[in-house]
Structure formats: structure tokens, C-alpha cells
Design brief:
The chain contains seven helices and 14 strands. Helix content is 33%, strand content 31%. It has a five-stranded parallel beta sheet with strand order 2-1-3-4-5. The protein has a five-stranded antiparallel beta sheet with strand order 10-9-8-12-11. A two-stranded antiparallel ribbon has the order 6-7. It is elongated, with a radius of gyration of 22 Å. It is α/β, with parallel strands linked by helices.
Length: 236
């Protein structure tokens, strides 16, 4: 995967260093380096970047102010000499906060966070669009339609995908990996060992999901997201 990125920094030396880092990172495609947020605003309107390496203290429009008006899908890695903006940076959804002078090691670590993020989004979009996935089971690849899944159960190093027709498919995979792949909030984790296909739920009994004779617990760790889903679909 290639990520289109841009650098916005009013310090030429800092911008040049980041430019050299971006150019030697294989999965980054640098589309521009800008000396101010206002300059970037004009250029990025025509040629949008997915990822910005953004300075904070700049004239006319600060990096924090600029971040607040960016499209939600544009991700930010702040690069700054000042520690005091860290909390504000996370309030605007920054992926990382790098202190100047930025080392290549720190730059690459932050860039990899962005790569993980965009790869996750890409997988989510593909799954939501295509409505199926392939899973490995007993040296075979099995096509599983999302609409056929009732729930997924974690069993140590394996997951068991339980389908409406009673079929159970075992696959060597951890729960986190398959959870990241499934579209939310259609599929929600209700317990460390269970992911439930929420539109398939027909009955809740004592805050447990009931599928026939199967009772799936809803633990306190995941209760908030599950309760929000129920509240959005409950007539009161």
C-alpha cells in the first residue's frame, strides 16, 4: 500500500529533514512540502494528501487550528519542538506526536502507525463492500459470507466462526485480527471470547445474547458499545 503524504512546516531545515525521511520510506509518496498551513490549504484542495506531517507553531494558522478544519479521513502526525500541545493533538485525532529534532527511527515508527491505520480502513471497506471473506481452515481457503455469520468464538490460538446453518469453521487466528477485519458496528465484541453479528440477534435474556441453545455473555469491558447499539435500535 502507498500513502500519499505532505509536509507542512515553516522551518526549512526541519521540512528538509522530514522530506528526506519521506523519500526513503518505501510506502510513502510525498506529494508536496509547504511552508504554511495556508499555502498547503490551497494546494491540497486540488491534490489531497492522506497523511500530513504537520508542524504546530506556524504563523497565521497553527497546526492545531488547521487540523480542526481538515477532512476526517486525512490523518495527522504532528512534528513540533513543544511538548505542551500533546493533549490538544490527540483531541484532533492525531496518529502521533513527534518531538523535534525528529530521528528517522521515530519518523518510521509513526509512519508505520499510519500504514496500519490505512490498511485497517482498506480492509474494512473491502469487507463491507464485498460482504465476504476467505479464512484458512485445514489447509483450505473457505469463503464465508458475512450475512451467514451468527457469532465468532475465540479458542486460545483459534477462532470458531459459527454460521446460521449450524456450520462451525475453525481457523488459526487470534480474535484481535478478525475483529479488526469485521465491519463495525455490524459486528461487535461482546466478550473477550465472542464477536456477535448484531443484526442477527433475536433475543436478549439477562443481558446475554441468545442464539438457540447458545448463550453469549456480554462482559463489562464491552458493555458500553453493545448498550449503545441496543439503545439506537430500541423503542422506549
Amino acid at each position: 500500500m502507498i500513502i500519499n503524504c505532505a509536509i507542512i512546516d515553516d522551518e526549512p531545515l526541519a521540512a528538509g529533514l522530514l522530506k528526506s525521511y519521506a523519500e526513503k520510506t518505501p510506502f510513502l509518496h510525498l506529494i508536496g512540502t509547504y511552508g504554511s498551513a495556508l499555502e498547503a490549504m490551497k494546494e491540497l484542495r486540488e491534490n489531497p494528501a492522506q497523511l500530513l506531517f504537520l508542524d504546530i507553531q506556524m504563523p497565521e494558522l497553527s497546526g492545531i487550528e488547521f487540523a480542526k478544519i481538515l477532512p476526517h479521513e486525512t490523518k495527522i502526525i504532528f512534528t513540533t519542538a513543544f511538548q505542551q500541545y500533546a493533549i490538544e493533538s490527540y483531541k484532533v485525532g492525531a496518529l502521533d506526536y513527534l518531538m523535534k529534532p525528529v530521528s528517522y527511527e521515530d519518523f518510521l515508527q509513526a509512519a508505520n502507525k499510519a500504514l496500519d491505520w490505512f490498511s485497517f480502513v482498506q480492509r474494512q471497506q473491502a469487507t463491507s463492500r464485498d460482504r465476504f471473506m476467505f479464512v484458512k481452515s485445514d489447509y483450505k481457503l473457505i469463503r464465508v459470507a458475512l450475512d451467514d455469520i451468527l457469532y465468532i468464538e475465540g479458542l486460545k490460538d483459534y477462532v470458531r466462526i459459527c454460521l446460521e446453518n449450524g456450520t462451525k469453521i475453525m481457523s488459526l487466528m487470534n480474535m484481535k485480527k478478525i475483529e479488526d477485519y469485521m465491519p463495525r458496528p455490524e459486528f461487535l465484541r461482546t466478550h473477550r471470547s465472542y464477536i456477535v453479528h448484531m443484526p442477527k440477534i433475536r433475543l436478549i435474556d439477562r443481558f446475554r445474547v441468545v442464539f438457540g441453545e447458545e448463550y453469549i455473555p456480554i462482559s463489562d469491558s464491552y458493555k458500553e458499545d453493545v448498550q449503545l447499539y441496543f439503545d439506537e435500535h430500541t423503542l422506549s
